[in-house]
Design brief:
This protein has 2 domains: 59 residues; 48 residues. Helix content is 38%, strand content 14%. The protein is built from 5 helices and 5 strands; from the N terminus they run ββββαβαααα. β2 and β3 form a beta hairpin. α4 runs parallel beside α5. The two termini are 25 Å apart.
């Protein structure tokens, strides 16, 4: 079982937001594990309130929001860009340049701790 620590993760066609849990193949998720975007979790320990993999580099829950950089956003597929904009409650433009402009404006206005 894996937990999303930052942002939104698309895995096997489903979107998982920060704090959610999902099953997945560790081999496929290696890059996200290395980047600390997801972490391995033991569901039994979670029920007992124990997190097996504590990571001091992950910020406390209330400051654990993550927004992709503008460059990361520009490399996303159109579908993923639209999904992220929808998650941010922004009606996505059909044109890629406009979506990039929409996201850039949102990103620049976001608090620094994101």
């Amino acid at each position: 079982m894996f937990k999303v620590n930052k942002g939104i993760v698309k895995h096997e066609g489903a979107y998982h937001s920060k704090g959610s849990f999902f099953d997945g193949n560790e081999e496929v998720l290696k890059p996200l594990l290395a980047a600390k975007i997801v972490s391995r979790e033991d569901p039994e320990a979670q029920r007992e309130g124990i997190v097996l993999q504590e990571d001091p580099e992950i910020m406390p829950e209330e400051h654990n929001d993550y927004l992709p950089t503008i460059e990361e956003f520009s490399k996303m597929t159109a579908h993923d860009q639209k999904a992220l904009l929808a998650e941010l409650e922004i009606e996505a433009a059909t044109n890629e340049k406009e979506r990039l402009k929409q996201y850039s404006e949102y990103y620049e206005a976001a608090p620094d701790e994101l």
